[in-house]
């Protein structure tokens, strides 16, 4: 039986960038279906996890410095370029996540665009808060970037991003990525971050027994 997995993501998160790349290999050989769900992690932080902002202000934090080193090691392990932090960190990410929402009904295209956007931000250090940069990323993916940008500013797409964010919060999310493994009885288990992907696999394997 196929296990459905909802992967809520924001393009501004380095750990999400890793998990986005790693979740497929982590679940290799298992019968799963991943649905990419764009949301606004800043909205999540504002609602349920404001301590994140305070943690960012302490540039001398031992934990923060160690986290950057671990991030580089995780990126090397995943084979992902991680030229980070960039001058544009942290992104507000409203524009890029609205673009992702505009593509949400076409999951294959959304995945392609998100992968290109992650590469643009975390390797090329491009400012994805700028609509011109997003249009260029979309064009390079074979999309009509200008049309996508126009759609992303429409009220239905704005409402969709807000609804996705509120849904993630209601389901218990407190950051990005938030990964939900769903069961046929309606129950679900949430996992957070790249390092919990082995637990996601374990949960799916347990369901298959």
What would a concise description of this structure say?
Helices cover 56% and strands 11% of the residues. It is an alpha+beta fold and 209 residues long.
| Uncertain residue segments | none
C-alpha Rg (nearest Å): 17 Å
Content-based structural category: alpha+beta
Q: Give the biggest sheet.
A: 4 strands, mixed
Distance between the termini: 10 Å
Mean pLDDT: 94
How many helix segments?
Answer: 10
Characterise this structure.
The mean pLDDT is 94. The chain is globular and about 50 Å long. The chain has 209 residues and is an alpha+beta fold. 56% of the residues lie in helices and 11% in strands. The protein has ten helices and four strands. The protein has helices spanning 14-26, 41-48, 51-57, 62-78, 94-102, 107-122, 131-140, 145-152, 155-170, 197-208; strands at 3-9, 32-38, 178-182, 188-192. The chain has a single domain, classed as Glutaredoxin (3-Layer(aba) Sandwich), CATH 3.40.30.10. The protein has a four-stranded mixed β-sheet with strand order 2-1-3-4.
């Amino acid at each position: 039986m196929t296990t459905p997995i909802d992967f809520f993501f924001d393009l501004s998160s380095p750990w999400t960038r890793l998990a986005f790349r790693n979740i497929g290999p982590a679940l290799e050989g298992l019968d799963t279906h991943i649905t990419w769900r764009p949301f606004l992690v800043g909205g999540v932080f504002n609602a349920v996890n404001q301590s994140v902002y305070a943690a960012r202000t302490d540039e001398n934090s031992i934990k923060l410095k160690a986290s950057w080193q671990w991030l580089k090691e995780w990126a090397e392990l995943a084979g992902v370029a991680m030229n980070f932090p960039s001058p544009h960190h942290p992104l507000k990410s409203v524009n890029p996540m609205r673009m992702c929402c505009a593509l949400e009904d076409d999951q294959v295209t959304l995945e392609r665009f998100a992968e290109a956007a992650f590469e643009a931000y975390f390797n090329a250090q491009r400012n994805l808060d700028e609509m011109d940069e997003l249009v260029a990323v979309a064009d390079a993916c074979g999309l009509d970037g200008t049309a996508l940008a126009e759609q992303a500013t429409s009220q239905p797409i704005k409402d969709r991003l807000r609804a996705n964010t509120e849904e993630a919060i209601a389901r218990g999310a407190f950051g990005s990525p938030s990964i939900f493994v769903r069961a046929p009885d309606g129950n679900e288990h949430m996992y957070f971050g790249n390092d919990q992907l082995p637990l996601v696999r374990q949960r799916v394997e347990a369901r298959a027994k």
